[in-house]
Design goal:
single chain, alpha+beta, 2 helices, 3 strands, about 35% helix
């Protein structure tokens, strides 16, 4: 959760605010497979804006998590609302 919290503002800025879409809010869930050493080995996403979802996926792929010791799958929900 600390890793996600650390990156959430950057993801919002990069993927949501720059998208300039018409939607007032977006919900995206990214599923990330974390390798035993903490790197993200693969990602997939679902949500109501495929462009924002793909952008978030690309961001999550570069994150480094604490090494879990074995492959782990995590779900990361993102909800952004225009002010």
């Amino acid at each position: 959760e600390r890793v996600v919290a650390m990156h959430r503002t950057g993801v919002k800025r990069t993927c949501w605010e720059r998208s300039g879409g018409e939607k007032s809010s977006v919900n995206v869930t990214v599923t990330a497979n974390v390798a035993p050493n903490g790197t993200v080995s693969s990602t997939s996403s679902s949500g109501d804006d495929p462009v924002v979802a793909k952008c978030i996926e690309n961001q999550v792929r570069s994150w480094q998590f604490p090494a879990p010791g074995s492959s782990t799958t995590i779900q990361i929900p993102f909800k952004f609302v225009r002010q």
